[in-house]
Amino acid sequence: EGLVAVELDFKWGFMDSRGNEVIPCKYDYAEDFSEGLAAVVLDDKWGFIDDDGEWAINAQFSSARPFNEEGLAIVASGGKYGVIDTDGDWVINPQFEDFYGFNEGFSVF
Fold first, then answer.
1. How many other C-beta atoms are found inside a 10 Å radius of the C-beta of residue 84?
2. Would you state the pLDDT for residue 23?
3. Cα radius of gyration rounded to whole Å, the chain
4. What pLDDT was estimated at residue 50?
5. What are the Cα distances from residue 85, in Å, to 20, 25, 94?
6. What gap in Å lies between CA 45 and CA 67, rounded to an integer?
7. Contact of 75 with 68, CB cutoff 8 Å
């Protein structure tokens, strides 16, 4: 979505297509942007940032996967998996031991 996750000196950030660092390399890990948000890790907690590097959904999860095209992301909290929307609201409360993903609107637990 215009920015790509990069690692520099064991920290992750984002560069544009010209190689300019747009979001500083300060995260412990980062996924590429999806649905306008990127999943990042800071101090062992996952959250989501926007393309300005601002927290859209605060770092609060023990794991997170990128948002799918339906605007849903699988996250873990309290040792259980659930699903949030791009506002950070629970669509499916964390209640599952594992969550494998979505396929054509259906989920696999």
1. 23
2. 98
3. 14
4. 97
5. 30, 26, 13
6. 17
7. no
In angstroms, the first-to-last Cα distance of the chain is 29
Cβ burial 37-64 (10 Å sphere, 16+ → b, else e): bbbbbbeeebbbbebebeebbebebbeb
- Burial of 35 by CB count in 10 Å (0-12 exposed, 13-18 middle, 19+ buried)? middle
76 within 8 A of 62, measured Cβ to Cβ = yes
Q: State how far the Cα of 42 lies from the Cα of 52, in Å rounded to an integer.
A: 16
Q: Cα 44 from chain centroid?
A: 13
Helix (H) or strand (E) holding 107: strand 106-108
Count of residues for the chain? Answer: 109
105 — pLDDT class (breaks 50, 70, 90): low
Report the C-alpha gap between 34 and 50 in whole angstroms: 10
